[in-house]
């Protein structure tokens, strides 16, 4: 039996202040990732790979990469045709994602609220130096 936690559906998008708490450690994604039952993170992408331009999505990538656990699959790039990590997508989608990854920049990423972007930037600097 498998269970999936989907950020967009698991968080009240109309009351994000409550969902996020007072720090990133109180965010629903952070708590779910560290629950001990999480087996991996899936990022749903098409050839435009827009999640890789969003601050919160990049924060989630960082948190996933920093979580070494036995039995944890890590970050999986999922597409309409399958999982990129396992060769399950088209060349066009793979190339589009590759271009976004090559230009990946937290500094140039966007967030709906400036304070979110500032908090995420501070967190990354604190954790990575």
Description:
Strands 1-2-3 form a three-stranded mixed sheet. Helix content is 41%, strand content 9%. It contains six helices and three strands. The longest helix is centred in the C-terminal third of the chain and has 15 residues, at 114-128. The chain is mainly alpha-helical.
What tags apply to this protein structure?
mainly alpha, 6 helices
Concise description?
The chain has 129 residues and is mainly alpha-helical. It is built from six helices and three strands; from the N terminus they run H-H-H-E-H-E-E-H-H.
Spell out the blueprint of helices and strands.
Blueprint (H helix, E strand, L loop, with lengths): L6 H4 L5 H5 L7 H6 L7 E4 L10 H11 L9 E5 L2 E2 L7 H12 L11 H15 L1
Parallel strand pairs: 1-2
Antiparallel strand pairs: 2-3
Mean model confidence by pLDDT:
84
Through-space gap between termini = 40 Å
Strand portion: 5-15%
Note the main sheet.
3 strands, mixed
**Class of secondary structure makeup:** mainly alpha
Low-confidence stretches: none
Say how many strands there are. 3
């Amino acid at each position: 039996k498998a269970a999936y936690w989907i950020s967009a559906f698991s968080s009240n998008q109309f009351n994000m202040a409550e969902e996020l708490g007072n720090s990133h450690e109180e965010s629903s994604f952070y708590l779910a990732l560290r629950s001990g039952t999480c087996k991996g993170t899936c990022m749903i992408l098409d050839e435009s790979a827009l999640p890789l331009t969003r601050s919160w999505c990049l924060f989630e990538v960082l948190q996933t990469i920093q979580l070494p656990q036995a039995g944890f699959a890590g970050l999986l790039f999922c597409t309409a045709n399958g999982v990129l990590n396992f060769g399950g997508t088209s060349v066009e989608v793979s190339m589009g994602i590759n271009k976004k990854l090559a230009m990946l920049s937290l500094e140039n990423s966007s967030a709906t609220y400036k304070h979110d972007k500032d908090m995420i930037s501070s967190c990354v600097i604190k954790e990575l130096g």
